[in-house]
Protein backbone atom coordinates (compact mmCIF):
# COMPACT_ATOMS: atom_id res chain seq x y z
CA UNK A 1 0.00 0.00 0.00
CA UNK A 2 1.28 3.45 -0.92
CA UNK A 3 1.81 5.78 2.03
CA UNK A 4 2.30 9.48 1.45
CA UNK A 5 5.50 10.64 3.15
CA UNK A 6 6.65 14.16 3.92
CA UNK A 7 9.94 13.58 2.13
CA UNK A 8 8.03 12.74 -1.04
CA UNK A 9 7.28 16.43 -1.45
CA UNK A 10 10.44 18.36 -0.65
CA UNK A 11 11.34 21.49 -2.61
CA UNK A 12 13.24 19.64 -5.32
CA UNK A 13 10.38 17.22 -5.90
CA UNK A 14 7.82 20.01 -6.07
CA UNK A 15 9.96 21.80 -8.67
CA UNK A 16 10.00 18.63 -10.78
CA UNK A 17 6.24 18.25 -10.40
CA UNK A 18 5.74 21.89 -11.39
CA UNK A 19 7.87 21.46 -14.51
CA UNK A 20 5.88 18.37 -15.47
CA UNK A 21 2.68 20.33 -14.85
CA UNK A 22 3.79 23.10 -17.20
CA UNK A 23 4.72 20.59 -19.90
CA UNK A 24 1.33 18.89 -19.44
CA UNK A 25 -0.39 22.28 -19.77
CA UNK A 26 1.40 23.00 -23.05
CA UNK A 27 0.46 19.56 -24.39
CA UNK A 28 -3.13 20.17 -23.28
CA UNK A 29 -3.32 23.18 -25.59
CA UNK A 30 -2.42 20.96 -28.57
CA UNK A 31 -5.78 19.22 -28.54
CA UNK A 32 -8.01 18.25 -31.45
CA UNK A 33 -11.37 16.52 -31.95
CA UNK A 34 -11.61 12.95 -33.20
CA UNK A 35 -13.83 11.82 -36.04
CA UNK A 36 -16.37 10.11 -33.78
CA UNK A 37 -16.57 12.54 -30.85
CA UNK A 38 -18.57 15.74 -30.24
CA UNK A 39 -16.69 19.08 -30.13
CA UNK A 40 -16.40 19.13 -26.34
CA UNK A 41 -14.37 15.90 -26.35
CA UNK A 42 -10.89 16.77 -27.59
CA UNK A 43 -7.88 14.47 -27.77
CA UNK A 44 -4.48 15.36 -26.30
CA UNK A 45 -1.53 13.58 -24.72
CA UNK A 46 -1.19 15.81 -21.67
CA UNK A 47 -1.53 12.80 -19.34
CA UNK A 48 1.96 11.62 -20.32
CA UNK A 49 3.86 13.97 -17.95
CA UNK A 50 1.49 13.02 -15.11
CA UNK A 51 2.09 9.31 -15.70
CA UNK A 52 5.85 9.79 -15.88
CA UNK A 53 5.70 11.79 -12.65
CA UNK A 54 3.54 9.14 -11.02
CA UNK A 55 5.99 6.38 -11.95
CA UNK A 56 9.11 8.32 -10.99
CA UNK A 57 7.94 10.31 -7.96
CA UNK A 58 4.94 8.41 -6.61
CA UNK A 59 1.19 8.21 -7.40
CA UNK A 60 0.27 11.50 -5.71
CA UNK A 61 2.84 13.32 -7.84
CA UNK A 62 0.80 12.39 -10.90
CA UNK A 63 -2.35 13.78 -9.32
CA UNK A 64 -0.62 17.07 -8.49
CA UNK A 65 0.71 17.33 -12.06
CA UNK A 66 -2.90 17.02 -13.25
CA UNK A 67 -3.96 19.72 -10.80
CA UNK A 68 -1.21 22.11 -11.92
CA UNK A 69 -2.03 21.47 -15.58
CA UNK A 70 -5.71 22.25 -15.21
CA UNK A 71 -5.20 25.27 -12.97
CA UNK A 72 -2.81 26.73 -15.55
CA UNK A 73 -5.37 26.00 -18.27
CA UNK A 74 -8.10 27.89 -16.40
CA UNK A 75 -5.87 30.79 -15.33
CA UNK A 76 -3.83 31.31 -18.50
CA UNK A 77 -5.89 29.95 -21.37
CA UNK A 78 -9.38 30.29 -19.94
CA UNK A 79 -12.23 27.82 -20.26
CA UNK A 80 -14.92 27.44 -22.88
CA UNK A 81 -16.76 24.70 -20.99
CA UNK A 82 -17.70 26.58 -17.78
CA UNK A 83 -14.78 24.70 -16.13
CA UNK A 84 -16.65 21.41 -16.67
CA UNK A 85 -14.02 20.25 -19.16
CA UNK A 86 -11.15 21.03 -16.81
CA UNK A 87 -12.84 19.26 -13.90
CA UNK A 88 -13.49 16.23 -16.08
CA UNK A 89 -9.90 16.30 -17.33
CA UNK A 90 -8.59 16.47 -13.76
CA UNK A 91 -10.77 13.58 -12.60
CA UNK A 92 -9.97 11.27 -15.49
CA UNK A 93 -6.27 12.16 -15.51
CA UNK A 94 -5.90 11.78 -11.75
CA UNK A 95 -7.55 8.36 -11.72
CA UNK A 96 -5.35 7.24 -14.60
CA UNK A 97 -2.09 8.53 -13.09
CA UNK A 98 -2.81 7.42 -9.52
CA UNK A 99 -3.97 3.89 -10.34
CA UNK A 100 -1.14 3.27 -12.81
CA UNK A 101 1.46 4.74 -10.43
CA UNK A 102 0.12 2.82 -7.44
CA UNK A 103 0.43 -0.53 -9.20
CA UNK A 104 3.91 0.32 -10.52
CA UNK A 105 4.99 1.56 -7.07
CA UNK A 106 4.42 -1.90 -5.50
CA UNK A 107 7.13 -3.43 -7.69
CA UNK A 108 8.88 -1.28 -10.26
CA UNK A 109 9.04 -3.67 -13.20
CA UNK A 110 8.10 -3.30 -16.85
CA UNK A 111 5.32 -5.85 -16.34
CA UNK A 112 3.81 -3.82 -13.50
CA UNK A 113 4.09 -0.65 -15.55
CA UNK A 114 2.07 -2.25 -18.35
CA UNK A 115 -0.46 -3.70 -15.90
CA UNK A 116 -0.76 -0.33 -14.18
CA UNK A 117 -1.37 1.47 -17.48
CA UNK A 118 -3.99 -1.09 -18.57
CA UNK A 119 -5.83 -1.01 -15.23
CA UNK A 120 -5.50 2.78 -15.12
CA UNK A 121 -7.03 3.09 -18.58
CA UNK A 122 -9.98 0.90 -17.59
CA UNK A 123 -10.43 2.69 -14.25
CA UNK A 124 -10.45 6.17 -15.80
CA UNK A 125 -12.87 5.05 -18.52
CA UNK A 126 -15.32 3.66 -15.97
CA UNK A 127 -15.06 6.68 -13.66
CA UNK A 128 -15.41 9.35 -16.34
CA UNK A 129 -18.25 7.47 -18.07
CA UNK A 130 -20.27 7.41 -14.84
CA UNK A 131 -19.33 11.02 -14.04
CA UNK A 132 -20.31 12.19 -17.53
CA UNK A 133 -23.64 10.37 -17.45
CA UNK A 134 -24.79 11.53 -14.04
CA UNK A 135 -22.94 14.81 -13.47
CA UNK A 136 -20.70 16.37 -16.12
CA UNK A 137 -22.86 16.43 -19.25
CA UNK A 138 -26.10 17.39 -17.41
CA UNK A 139 -24.18 20.13 -15.58
CA UNK A 140 -22.60 21.34 -18.82
CA UNK A 141 -26.05 21.58 -20.40
CA UNK A 142 -27.42 23.49 -17.40
CA UNK A 143 -24.41 25.84 -17.19
CA UNK A 144 -24.90 26.91 -20.81
CA UNK A 145 -28.67 26.87 -20.68
CA UNK A 146 -28.57 24.27 -23.42
CA UNK A 147 -31.18 21.48 -23.62
CA UNK A 148 -29.60 18.05 -23.25
CA UNK A 149 -31.30 17.08 -26.52
CA UNK A 150 -29.25 19.71 -28.35
CA UNK A 151 -25.99 18.18 -27.05
CA UNK A 152 -27.22 14.80 -28.25
CA UNK A 153 -28.10 16.28 -31.66
CA UNK A 154 -24.65 17.89 -32.00
CA UNK A 155 -23.00 14.62 -30.98
CA UNK A 156 -25.22 12.62 -33.32
CA UNK A 157 -24.19 14.80 -36.25
CA UNK A 158 -20.63 13.55 -35.75
CA UNK A 159 -21.43 10.01 -34.65
CA UNK A 160 -24.58 8.44 -36.09
CA UNK A 161 -24.76 5.92 -33.26
CA UNK A 162 -25.41 8.66 -30.69
CA UNK A 163 -29.16 9.04 -30.21
CA UNK A 164 -29.41 9.69 -26.46
CA UNK A 165 -27.21 10.25 -23.41
CA UNK A 166 -26.62 6.54 -22.89
CA UNK A 167 -25.44 5.98 -26.45
CA UNK A 168 -23.28 9.11 -26.19
CA UNK A 169 -21.44 7.45 -23.32
CA UNK A 170 -21.24 4.05 -25.02
CA UNK A 171 -20.25 5.14 -28.53
CA UNK A 172 -18.26 8.31 -27.84
CA UNK A 173 -17.04 8.73 -24.26
CA UNK A 174 -15.97 5.11 -23.68
CA UNK A 175 -14.08 4.54 -26.98
CA UNK A 176 -12.57 8.04 -26.72
CA UNK A 177 -11.05 7.30 -23.30
CA UNK A 178 -9.94 3.78 -24.22
CA UNK A 179 -8.16 5.11 -27.32
CA UNK A 180 -6.62 7.95 -25.33
CA UNK A 181 -5.46 5.49 -22.67
CA UNK A 182 -3.76 3.26 -25.23
CA UNK A 183 -1.99 6.11 -27.06
CA UNK A 184 -0.86 7.85 -23.85
CA UNK A 185 0.31 4.53 -22.38
CA UNK A 186 2.44 3.72 -25.44
CA UNK A 187 4.06 7.17 -25.38
CA UNK A 188 4.72 6.84 -21.64
CA UNK A 189 6.38 3.45 -22.08
CA UNK A 190 8.57 4.81 -24.87
CA UNK A 191 9.64 7.91 -22.91
CA UNK A 192 9.79 6.82 -19.27
CA UNK A 193 13.17 5.06 -19.22
CA UNK A 194 14.79 8.02 -20.96
CA UNK A 195 13.25 10.66 -18.70
CA UNK A 196 13.14 8.90 -15.31
CA UNK A 197 16.90 9.24 -14.54
CA UNK A 198 16.51 13.02 -14.73
CA UNK A 199 13.53 13.00 -12.35
CA UNK A 200 15.17 10.61 -9.91
CA UNK A 201 18.50 12.45 -9.80
Automatic annotation (TrEMBL):
Quick one: where is this thing mainly located? membrane
Q: What is one cellular component GO term in this UniProt entry?
A: plasma membrane
Supply one GO molecular-function term.
riboflavin transmembrane transporter activity
Q: Which UniProt keywords apply?
A: Cell membrane, Membrane, Transmembrane, Transmembrane helix, Transport
| Subcellular compartments | Cell membrane
Cross-referenced Pfam families: ECF_trnsprt
Q: How does it sit in the membrane?
A: Multi-pass membrane protein
From the record, give the transmembrane residue ranges: 15-36, 48-67, 87-105, 112-135, 168-192
Concerning its family, UniProt says: Belongs to the prokaryotic riboflavin transporter (P-RFT) (TC 2.A.87) family.
PANTHER family noted in UniProt: RIBOFLAVIN TRANSPORTER RIBU
Q: What does this protein do?
A: Probably a riboflavin-binding protein that interacts with the energy-coupling factor (ECF) ABC-transporter complex.
Recorded protein name is Riboflavin transporter
Origin organism of this chain?
A: Keratinibaculum paraultunense
Mind giving the lineage of the organism this protein is from?
A: Bacteria, Bacillati, Bacillota, Tissierellia, Tissierellales
Amino acid sequence: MYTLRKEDFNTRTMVKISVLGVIAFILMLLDFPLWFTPPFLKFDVSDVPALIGSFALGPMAGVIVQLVKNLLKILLAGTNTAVVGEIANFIVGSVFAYVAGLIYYKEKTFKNAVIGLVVGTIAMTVVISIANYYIMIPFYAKAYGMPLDKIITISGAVNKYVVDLKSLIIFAVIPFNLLKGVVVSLITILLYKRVSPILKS
